[in-house]
């Protein structure tokens, strides 16, 4: 889906034009269901036909990211166990389905060097904006461990190598919480389904030196129908582990 980018701050119009050129955004609003808006402080994604949903943006400094950084449980978190974070061990990680970068930020917070791969231009632009605002802030050291690549994982992964490749493909959610409902409604309009998700497993295995970790809802079948060697369960999800 083509997403327009408009600028609410005249002082940032040149930056908006750079983003349009880099990611192929239009400057014309038209009848697009989603629009990127560059404000005085950040880049936002808004659903034009449902303004009450509010904006989606990436914030690694405050809000939920700050709370999880301070109180999320450190290396005792399920994702840390699945990836293999241990005392003195900080594996390098490729997040092949970066999305809004939440899991990547958790892993970077815990000491991992994380390469984020995001294929949708609007989501990649939101990530870029969030990382830029994180640099020079109190989480500058964490942001320095995060590198963004724009493009489909099936195209980008062959040029990358890391200890662990982490995947969290889009999957229909059953939860009814307001946050999930808001984000999933906007993301499903914007991105659609991950129709090539099954093909990602083989590409991830080729790029990983140690293991592939796949996050799945607890009710979902294994990715590509391939049974994992083990799993780390959580209340609503699980992390399937495929050793190399």
TrEMBL record:
Gene Ontology CC terms: cytoplasm
EC number: 2.1.1.242
Subcellular location: Cytoplasm
Enzyme class: transferase
Pfam families listed in its UniProt record: SAM_MT (PF04445)
One Gene Ontology term of the molecular function aspect: rRNA (guanine-N2-)-methyltransferase activity
Keyword terms: Cytoplasm, Methyltransferase, rRNA processing, S-adenosyl-L-methionine, Transferase
Catalytic reaction annotation: guanosine(1516) in 16S rRNA + S-adenosyl-L-methionine = N(2)-methylguanosine(1516) in 16S rRNA + S-adenosyl-L-homocysteine + H(+)
Binding site for S-adenosyl-L-methionine: 102-103, 118-119, 168
Function according to Swiss-Prot or TrEMBL: Specifically methylates the guanosine in position 1516 of 16S rRNA.
Family stated for the protein in its record: Belongs to the methyltransferase superfamily. RsmJ family.
HAMAP family the record matches: 16SrRNA_methyltr_J
Name by which UniProt lists this protein: Ribosomal RNA small subunit methyltransferase J
Organism of provenance: Gallaecimonas pentaromativorans
